[in-house]
Amino acid sequence: MSSNVTLEAVARLAGVSTSTVSRYLSGTHPVSPDKKAAIDSSIDQLNYRPNLVARGLAKGRTMTVGVMTQEILSSFFNEAMRGVEDGLIGHNYEAIFVSGHWDPADEARRLTSLMGRGVDGVVLIMGGLEDSVMARHANGVPMVLMGRHSALKQVHSLSFDHYDGACRAVRHLVELGHKRIAFISGPPDRFDADERLRGYRDTLAQAGIAFDDQLVASGNYVEPGGVTAMNILLDRGRPFTAVFAGNDDSAYGAMLAMHRRGIVIPRDISLVGYDDLPHSSYCIPPLTSVRQPLRELGREAANAIVALIEGRKPPRSALTRLELIVRESTRALPA
């Protein structure tokens, strides 16, 4: 049985020292190719499986990282979670996922629960936790915050420039000749949603286009919200030729609402989303969207939390700027 195979047995069969096998398995020091081949062969023959729990306990760790997302079913959060999971696997840490559902009180309870399970670190994906709540827990374990910035020194923040992304989306529509541009916003009092609204307003102002609050409706970042927001915009009777949706899920809902009213995209109305989720390439028509490399951000968060757990400085972020991916959901207005 693999559970009875010891590190010493692997080393003996491979003809190397136990410390060499230990270094090889932990990845802390390089091992020569011939020793690596001998150890791999020994592991295969003996069906050896390292006891990660015991190894973690020896270091005073559980080898687990708590990951608090907001909505497990969301395509946005799925991409981010997959990135975190990918990154942790390479370091032999396992993720424990919980959801906060955009409720700060629920988030606080979930965070307390993770701490009670003895996780070695925590990755927070978005959410509305106040700095005071994060600070209380960040004094106990390392913490990485994805998707928004925190002024807390104890919390390592990784985020994108939501303002710049919104400016790119609206500027694209302006360059296509659109002057009546509607906006489906995100939830109120959310940093990313506020920044995208600010980018929308500022880009209109830079183009000499007056802001009209009747061309703004909240979609709450979910598909049903996008349907409702688009219906509200159409029912108000204010003419518009283009829509910038605060995220792709809202854009999907807007597409459905327009389809039901016989509006053809982009012949009648152009549409731009935000996030560039995988489904956006397969919409009808394929959706123009601002690309956020969510999976890459998740991997960076995993590398950062492991570095903090191990007492190292997190690697410098290598994420590139946001990119507008132009597809068939937008078109230039006739001259």
Please identify the top-level CATH class of the largest domain: Alpha Beta
- The rounded Rg comes to 25 Å
Largest sheet: 6 strands, mixed
Beta strand count:
11
- Corresponding CATH architecture of the largest domain: 3-Layer(aba) Sandwich
Order of helices and strands: HHHHEHEHEHEEHEHEHEHEEHE
**What is the helical fraction, as a range of percent?**
40-55%
Shape: elongated
Q: How are the strands ordered across the major sheet? A: 7-6-8-9-10-11
How many H/I helical runs? 12
Name the CATH superfamily classification of the largest domain: Response regulator
The CA-CA distance between the termini, in Å, is 76 Å
Low-confidence stretches: none
By CATH, the topology of the largest domain is: Rossmann fold
Structural class computed from helices and strand pairing: alpha/beta
Overview of the structural elements:
The protein has 335 residues and is an alpha/beta fold. It folds into 3 domains: 2-50, 434 Repressor (Amino-terminal Domain) (Orthogonal Bundle), CATH 1.10.260.40; 58-160 and 294-319, Response regulator (Rossmann fold); 162-291, Response regulator (Rossmann fold, 3-Layer(aba) Sandwich). It has helices at 7-14, 18-26, 33-46, 52-58, 75-89, 104-116, 131-138, 162-175, 191-206, 223-235, 248-260, 294-309, and strands at 64-69, 94-99, 121-125, 143-146, 155-158, 181-185, 216-218, 242-245, 270-275, 288-291, 323-325. The strands form 2 sheets. A 6-stranded mixed beta sheet has the order 7-6-8-9-10-11, with helices on both faces. Strands 2-1-3-4-5 form a 5-stranded parallel beta sheet, sandwiched between helices. Helix 5 links the parallel strand 1 (64-69) and strand 2. It is elongated and about 80 Å long. It starts with 6 loop residues before the first helix and ends in a 10-residue tail after the last strand.
